[in-house]
Design brief:
The protein is mostly beta strands. The protein is built from 5 helices and 33 strands. The strands form 8 sheets. Strands 2, 28, 29, 30, 31 and 32 form a 6-stranded antiparallel sheet that branches. A 5-stranded antiparallel sheet has the order 1-5-4-3-33. The two termini are 30 Å apart.
Length: 507
């Protein structure tokens, strides 16, 4: 039974939030009128669609083979409490490219919470804004699996930001199979930004929680079998978001932005504080090392959401990413109960480089650029080795109209020089995380930016969505083609590229 068939069986589906008219997908509203994350470009959609032979403006590159997948929140039922975008049920959107043609599909991720709520006919989770209820789930809120997605071990893996239980999704149909279980590992928990090393096919993963051990790190082989896992000693519960790796090392994060466990235990709310007097620490661990082998390097206090790439240069380990000096901006007057959520979602970050000397312990760090950008991606073929280029999303600050998190343009960086090239999506047009799509047969022997950059955009003027394909060597010329999608695609979180040889085989 498909997700669409399953939902047609539930008469209460008309209670879902953000019901849309199917004439032109313009969002209309049922409830929570003051929550901007349920309006406009953020409006949930209420059905699943598939379409082939999509219309194309421009010329679709004949050698573009693979698929762009993007995860994100798409709530089905009205929230029990005030809605946070992290609460929305996970939904995958896929744009498939093959033989000069493109197709599209979207499907909800059938998590355990999704199935339970479908049976009950309502949402029972208290949501990220709390209070947490651990009688409902081991996380106190529902694991929505709405955050990240990547191709691994023959399928897609969808994940949740709070180190949830990953799900295995069929990469051709987007139908949920079951939990993604690593053979030989007892725990299901994985952080959203675990990483696949394209050069080996290995999964480098970490998880974290509120009870010791507060973090673990491990490696599974290309076939989904656990090969190594160790506990990482941290001072207490933390909320690390990402991980980096080189050919020999993993780079783990201990960040001074975390919650007060006493408040969580006594009152059920996760209250985050940025501790400006505590240094940020990055731990460099041999891939198959023990927890005692980790070396911690102290840096200026900051928060880091996403790593671009890491590599080794002699005694140095280099990490490029986006740094935030203000992960909890001030709440604004007049925003009421949503003030702190809106402030947290107003992301302030910029391209940054850290360097760690394994011989002397020296740290060097500094800006690559100061433009407010994030959701940074790079060519996965070069992950773990020296690279220069990254592809970010331009994010307007509050004084620039950035009341909510939105992506208004694509930015390509040369991280060695700080030079940037930009393409503005246009007035009222908002993008998604962009991915690098290497040409078929590409390797580290070729040019790092020889390929394409693929993203999704939604135009709030017409409520139409497109997939844009850029020549990665020249993003300033604009997209070489625009693939017209059969429906509006709401705002989302993370995206990935799956290669044609992995999805379709040698043929």
């Amino acid at each position: 039974m498909t997700s669409a068939q399953r939902f047609r069986e539930f008469p209460h589906v008309d209670r879902c939030v953000g019901a849309v008219t199917h004439f032109d997908d313009a969002p209309t509203w049922i409830y929570d009128h003051d929550n901007p994350y349920l309006h406009g470009v953020y409006a949930p959609i209420t059905d699943e669609r598939s379409a082939t032979d999509l219309p194309v403006i421009g010329e679709l590159p004949a050698d573009l083979a693979g698929a762009y997948f993007r995860n994100g929140p798409n709530p089905v039922f009205e929230s029990k409490n005030r809605y946070h975008p992290f609460d929305g049920d996970g939904m995958l959107h896929g744009v498939y490219f093959r033989n000069g043609k493109a197709s599209y599909a979207n499907r909800w991720i059938h998590t355990a919470a999704f199935e339970d709520e479908a049976a009950d006919g309502c949402s029972v989770s208290p949501g990220v804004m709390g209070p947490f209820d651990y009688s409902l789930s081991p996380f106190g809120i529902k694991d929505t699996s709405n955050t990240d997605v990547f191709w691994y071990d023959g399928d897609l893996m969808s994940l949740w930001y709070n180190a949830g239980h990953p799900y295995r999704v069929d990469s051709r149909t987007l139908e949920t199979r079951d939990h993604f279980r690593l053979e030989g590992r007892k725990s299901l928990r994985l952080s959203a930004h675990s990483k696949v090393d394209w050069s080996t096919g290995e999964l480098l993963f970490f998880d974290y929680g509120d009870e010791p051990p507060y973090m673990t790190f491990g490696i599974a082989d290309a076939g989904g079998r656990l090969r190594h896992e160790v506990a990482i000693d941290l001072p207490g519960p933390r909320l690390p978001h990402d991980i980096g790796f080189t050919t020999r090392y993993a780079i783990l994060h201990d960040l001074p932005f975390f919650h007060d466990m006493d408040v969580l235990r006594q009152h059920g709310y996760r209250v985050l504080t940025f501790h400006r007097d505590i240094p940020t620490r990055f731990g460099i661990l041999p891939r198959h090392g023990q927890g005692s082998d980790i070396r911690w390097f102290e840096c200026e206090p900051c928060y880091i959401l996403h790593v671009t790439n890491c590599w080794e240069e002699g005694d140095w380990v280099v990490m490029d990413g986006c740094r935030s000096l203000n992960p909890m901006p001030d709440a604004q007057p007049g925003e009421g109960e949503l003030a702190h959520m809106l402030a947290y979602m107003r992301l302030e970050a910029n391209a940054y480089r850290w360097r760690f000397n394994l011989r002397t312990g020296e740290v060097r760090e500094g800006d690559i650029d100061t433009l407010n950008t994030e959701f940074n991606k790079s060519n996965p073929i070069f992950h773990g080795v020296k690279s220069r280029y990254a592809y970010h999303q331009r994010i307007p600050l509050l004084h620039e109209g950035g009341h909510t998190l939105r992506f208004t343009g694509l930015v390509k960086y040369d991280n060695d020089t700080g030079r940037r090239w930009e393409w503005d999506y246009g007035p009222g047009v908002f993008g998604s995380e962009a991915v690098f799509a290497p040409r078929p047969g590409a390797s580290r022997d070729g040019a790092e930016d020889d390929g394409y950059v693929v993203t999704l955009v939604t135009d709030s003027n017409s409520w139409r969505s497109e997939s844009l394909v850029f020549d990665a060597t020249d993003v300033e010329q604009g997209p070489v083609c625009r693939v017209q999608l059969p429906r509006r695609v709401p705002y989302g979180f993370h995206a990935t590229w799956a290669r044609g040889e992995d999805l379709y085989g040698a043929g």
